[in-house]
Amino acid sequence: MSILFYASALVAVLSTIMVITRVNVVHALLYFIVSLLAVAVIFYTLGAPMAAALEVIVYAGAIMVMFLFVMMMLNLGQRTIDQERVWLSPNIWIGPSILAAILLVELLLGLITTDATIAHTMVEAKEIGIALFGPYVLAVELASMLLLAGLVGAFHLARK
Amino acid sequence: MNVDLFPLVLYSVIVIVLIVALTAVSHLLGQKRKDHATDEVYESGMLSVGSAQLKISVPFYLTAILFIIFDLEAVFLFAWAISIRETGWLGYAEVFIFIAILIAGLVYLWRAGALEWRSQRQRDDRLHTIGKSGVVNIDKKTGKAHKTEQPKQGGAH
Prior knowledge:
Chain A is mainly α.
């Protein structure tokens, strides 16, 4: 299980780096799909099959479709690629990268000093259902209100 | 995980074998030609014109957003469907309200015209061009649709 975890974690990190560095938007999106699938495998190895399935259905499925539609709508071909190449010059990304690297070092130090192991607590999909429609029933109700607001809001924003 | 993975493995093997077999058979039996038109872009028999970078209209985008939201609502229903006995009447009542709110949203979108492909103006134009018999009249000289008179409500006939 831990080999599976480290392999998919490596795939997730590498594909996410590719998402950031690609100048062609559609190539970046393809890497992003790989990244999401790798994260789904990580969820599965950590004992959350429901979260893994939702990662694939909602993120790799629905939200990627959404991103692709936006890319198609704003599709300008070579011009956006050139623009992206200009934006990816080192003097722009070096600052945030150094700051993020400091945070990464801190995180790694924290991980090394604390004796952490990969948890293997199985959370069955059925338990999630029981929790959602048992103690968290009000949260589901609020979620439905939020989704309704999302539907109406999305319609009126797109209409404008 | 005590899930029997054998059917899934068998299914995957059958799919892969089928794809390989189909590709191999068409590779072996299909004719291979190398004419000047072989490597041209095929677009339903027409010569393709212009680039693939088109402006896609907004209704596609709206449809994608609505799809995501209904997809998320389906996620809650999945969670309920597998724990239907354990959650009992409370879960049933909750999912009833949940679906009711979902339907209210759908009815609102339907009434507001979010599911219509044409804009309001295009719909009005279309109503004008359809004659009384439901046929669109095209002027042979101009190639444009006739503007037929709208039948008056409760007319003086």
